[in-house]
Design a protein that fits this description.
heterodimer, A: 448 residues, mainly alpha, four-stranded mixed sheet, elongated, B: 356 residues, alpha/beta, Rossmann fold, Alpha-Beta Plaits, 2 domains, six-stranded mixed sheet, four-stranded antiparallel sheet, 11 helices, 16 strands, binds adenosine-5'-triphosphate, binds magnesium ion
Amino acid sequence: MRKIITLAWKELYIVFTDRNLLVIMIAAPLAIATIIGLAFGGQGGDIPVRDIPVAIVNLDEGGANEQNFGSIFVSAFVRPADGAESAQQALNCPTSDAASDANAGSSTTLYDLTEAVEVADVETARAGVDAGTYTAAIIIPADFTAKLGYGQNDPIEAAAIEVYANSGRAVGAAIIRSIVEGIGNQLATGSIAAATTVDSVVAEYGFAGIGQVAGSEAFQQNIACAFTPAINVLTIDQQTIAGERPNSTAAILVLFGSAQAMFFMLFTGQQGVLSIFDERRDGTLQRLVVSPTPRLYILIGKLAGTFVTCLMQMIALFVFLTLVGSLLTGQLTMIWGNNLFLVAVMLIAAAIASTGLGTLLAGIARTQEQSAIFAQLINLAMALLGGAFGFQLPEAISRFSIIYWGTNAFQKLAANQTDIGLNLLVLFGFGIGLFAIGFWFFNRRLDI
Amino acid sequence: MRQALVEARGLMKTYKRKDGTEVYAVQGIDLDIYKGEVFSFLGPNGAGKTTTISMISGLLAPTKGEATIGGFSITRQPMEAKKLLGVVPQEIALYPTLSARQNLDFFGRMYGLGGKELAMAVDEVLEFTDLKDRAKDRVDTFSGGMKRRVNIGVGLLHKPQLVYMDEPTVGVDPQSRRRILDTVIRLREERKMTVLYTTHLMEEAQELSNRVGIIDQGRIIALGTVGELVQKVGEEDRLIFDVGEQHIDNAVLERFKQVAGVTRATYQSYNLKPAAGAEDSAEIIVEKRSTGTMQIVRSGQVTDGEITVYAKRGRKALPELLRIADELGVSILSVEVREPDLEAVFLHLTGRALRE
Ligand SMILES: Nc1ncnc2c1ncn2[C@@H]1O[C@H](COP(=O)(O)OP(=O)(O)OP(=O)(O)O)[C@@H](O)[C@H]1O
Ligand SMILES: [Mg+2]
C-alpha cells in the first residue's frame, strides 16, 4: 500500500510541478469559461435573451368539437387576434392577482421572449432555421390534438412536437425547447396547478437559467401557464433581473465552466494513463518492474495518481469558477448550488469516467502515437456532442458524451435539484466499465 | 567451492518479429556468478547481453529456462530475488523533472526503504557518486556524465548483493568512463558487492573482471578468467601496422608471412567516421576500431588501413618485418605489439572482430 501511495504521489508531483501542464489543465479551461461567462452572462441589467426568432408551423388537423390544441399552442407564442380563445383559457390557468399587479409595471412576456411567426409549411420553417433567420422551428404535427384526445392524463410524448433548432444558438434553442415541453405537458395533462409564478422562476434563475430548471416537474407544469400571454404572469421587472444578475452569470458559468472542466479533464485522464508509454521509453518503467514491486501495484499506482490528478483539476476549476462567478457578481456566490456533498460525488464520478477512458485508450492503442490520435478524436467527439464548444446538439445525441452527463448534473445541482442518480450511474458505470476493459488490456503495457 | 549468487540454467529468449519470423536472441545460457566477483559479459552488438540480463533481472520472461538470485527463482519468487538485485540500465532511466534526490528517494521507496534508513541511504549514494552539491537540482539540468552517476546511484541505493550494469560506459567521454570503471572496482573492493557487467569493449572486461563470459549470437562461446581465456589462443602476439591511406597489395602480405614465427598476415582498411555532430570540425576525434583508442585526424582523412600480423614471438619478428616494408616502399605510421587478449580470443573463436 505504501508503494502504491508513493507511485500515485509521484504522478501527482510530476504533473503539478509542470507549469506548462498546469496552464493547459487549469488556466485554459478557466479562461474559456470566463470569457463565455462574460459574453453571455448579463452585463449590466440586460436580460441575456430576448426576442428569440421562432417559426411555428401548425399542421394540427384538430379533433372532435373543433378542438385544436395546435392553435392554442400557437397562440401561446403568437399574439392571437381579438376574440380568439386564448391559450390561457384553454389551459385553465388561474388568474392570479399578483400577475395582474405585475402587469402594471414594465413586463416581459413570452411574446417578448420570443419573436414568433406562424409559417405555413415545414420546409420554409426549416430553411429559415438553417439560414439562421430563426433560432428554432416549432412543428406541431397533424395528429397533435388527436393524440392528446386519448389518454388525457398521460404525459405528452416528447416527440409529438418537434423543435428544430439551430445548433449555433444553444441558449435560445434550449429555452424554446423547454418552453415547448412545458406547454406540451400542460396541454397533455390538462393540469392547472400553478404553484409558483414564473416571476419567481425567472427571478430566481434568470432567463439563462430556464434551461436548467426546465427539467423539474414543477417548472414544466407552471411554465405553460406562466408564459401564457393573456395571464401575463410572466412579468419581468427589469430591476428584479438586475438584482438577480448574479444568477444568470452563474448559470452560464455552471454550464460552460463544467463543460470546459470536463473537456479538459479528459485530456488529463488520458495524458496521465498514457504517460506509461513515456515511462517505458525513458526506462523508468523497466526500473520499476525490476524493483521488488508487484506489477499490479505499478498499474494501480499510475491509475490512482491519474484519478487524483483529474479530481484535483476539477476541484481547482470549480473553486476558481466560483471565485470568477463571485467576482463578476460582486458577491460570494455558490454557483454550484448548496449540495456540496453531491457536487463532490459528481466530481469523483467524472474523474473516474475520465481515468477509465484513459485506461481503455492506453490498453487498446498499440503505440503512443496511435493512442494520441484516438484520444484527440474521442475528446473532440465528446466535446462536440457534450456541448463544450458552446452549442448543444439534441439531447438524444448528447447522451453519448460523458461531458453531457457531467454538465447536466452540475446544472441540476446548481439549481439545487438532486435528481442526478442517472448521471452518477452513467458516469460511474462508464468509468468502471471502461476501466475494467482497459485494465485487462493495459496489463500488456508492462510486458517490455 | 565458491558460492554462486546467480544461477542461470538453459535461458532462452525468442522474439517474434511482426512478419512472423523468429529472432533467437538468446539460445540457451548456463551460468554461475559467484559471490563477490565482477563477472563481465563481453560480446558484440546484438549478441544477446541485454536480453540475457533482462531475463535474470525479471524484466523479461524467459521463453525457456530459469534463473535464480540468492536461491530465489526470478519467475516464482520474484519479490525476494529482486530485493537482492540493483540494476543500472544501459540507457539513463530517471524522471527528468525530479531532482537527483527525489529520484533516489522515489526508487528507494520502491525497494522498500523508508524513514531514516532511506534518508541515510540517499545521502550515502549522493556522497559516493559525488553529487551532493547538485542533489536538489532537476536531473534534466545535469550533464550526461552526472546523469550517468545518478543512474548508477539508483541501482546502489538499497545495498544490493548483486549489481547489474549494462554497458554503463556507452557514449561516455573518457573521463567519465574512467570514473565509472573505478566505481565498479570500488563496489567490489569496498562493498564486497557482486557485479554483473556487460560490455562490448574488451579492455573493460579485461580490466574489471574476475571472470568473463564471451557471448555471441545468443550463446556463451567461452567462459573463464581472462588468463584462462587467453590461453585458448596460444601464445601468438599480434603486430598491428598502421599504414594510413596507402594501398596494400597481397604481395606485401605474402612477404610478411615468410618471416620466421609469422603464422598469418591480414590487411584491413576502415572508413573512419567522425562522431555524430563533429563532422564539420577541422580536427575530428575518431575511435579506431581495432584498438579502441581515440585518435585525432584531420577531417579530410577518412580512411585508415592496418596490417595485422600474427607471430609466435612478435617482438623478435618486428625488425625483419619493418625492413621488408621499407624495401617494398610501404611506409609504416605506427606499430603496436599486442600480447594475446580477449579481442584475439574472440577473433580466434568466431573469425570476426569484436566490433564490426
Ligand atoms: N523486442 C525485441 N524484438 C525483437 N528482437 C529483439 C528485441 N530485443 C532484442 N532483439 C534482438 O535480440 C538480439 C539480442 O539483442 P540484445 O539487446 O540482447 O543485444 P546486446 O548484446 O545487448 O547488444 P548491444 O551491445 O547492442 O546492447 C538482437 O538481434 C536484437 O535485434
Ligand atoms: Mg545491450
